[in-house]
Write a structure and sequence with these properties.
The protein contains six helices and ten strands; from the N terminus they run βββααββββαβββααα. By secondary structure, it is of the alpha/beta class. It folds into two domains: 54 residues, no CATH class; 147 residues, Metalloproteases ("zincins"), catalytic domain (Zincin-like). A hairpin with a 5-residue loop joins β2 and β3. The chain binds zinc ion. The site of zinc ion has 3 residues, from α4.
Length: 223
């Protein structure tokens, strides 16, 4: 059988070993500082059936295609797909109706215009949901920011700030809510311990389903 290649070993003060398969289907191992390489190789060999299944799953996920900003192209907002329609003028640069209307004169800057629009929707909607969950759970952030983060949907700072990537606004509301709850719980519980997940679950019993959706579809939430 074909051997499985370890792309990277990241050593740290952690106590356990984690096999991580990244979205581009490479195997990264997080391990305690002194774990011998042959031990890790042996582990990978033992887990090869599981790794192969996971790799196949990753490779079968929808492929990311860069947007061309042409008529009829689909753009997601809050999980709903809208077709881009280039119009002579819609009074503003861009407007969401039944379609996503983009002024003809803005076509050369379409990407920037669309991103600015996404950010403004995210500013309003994500902040509103976050405030609602903050009052529901009592985990109150000092500030809520919409960021340009590429690799993470959300993060929370030690000083009580929570941040969300504007890209999250492309996802369905229930998925946005999951990321919000995840980050709010981090305000009190910084790690991903059992206690952390128990708290997430107590607020959102079906969080696993939402987490899985995000993993399976994250590459479609891109422009
Ligand atoms: Zn987390």
């Amino acid at each position: 059988m074909e051997e499985i290649k370890i792309s990277k070993i990241i050593r740290s003060k952690r106590k356990t070993i984690a096999l991580v398969l990244t979205h581009d289907a490479t195997l990264v191992i997080r391990a305690p500082l002194k774990t011998p390489v042959d031990y890790l190789e042996k582990l990978v060999n033992e887990k090869r059936a599981w790794i192969r299944t996971k790799l196949l799953e990753i490779k079968s996920r929808p492929k990311l295609k860069a947007k061309e900003f042409v008529n009829g192209e689909s753009f997601f907002c809050l999980g709903k797909s809208y077709k881009l329609k280039i119009v002579d003028s819609c009074g503003v640069d861009i407007e969401l109706k039944d379609n996503l209307l983009l002024s003809l004169e803005k076509v050369p800057y379409a990407r920037d215009v669309v991103i600015t629009w996404y950010k403004s929707v995210a500013e309003k909607k994500i902040k509103e949901r976050c405030e609602w969950y903050a009052s529901l759970t009592g985990y109150k952030p000092l500030s809520i920011k919409i960021t340009v983060a590429q690799k993470r949907w959300g993060s929370s700072g030690p000083k009580g700030t929570v941040n969300f990537s504007w890209r999250l606004i492309m996802a369905p509301l229930e998925i946005i809510d999951y990321v919000i709850v995840h980050e709010l719980v981090h305000l009190e519980q910084r790690d991903h311990s059992r206690l952390f997940w128990d708290k997430v679950k107590s607020i959102m019993p079906d969080f696993k389903k939402r987490q899985k959706w995000l993993k399976d579809n994250e590459r479609t939430l891109s422009i």
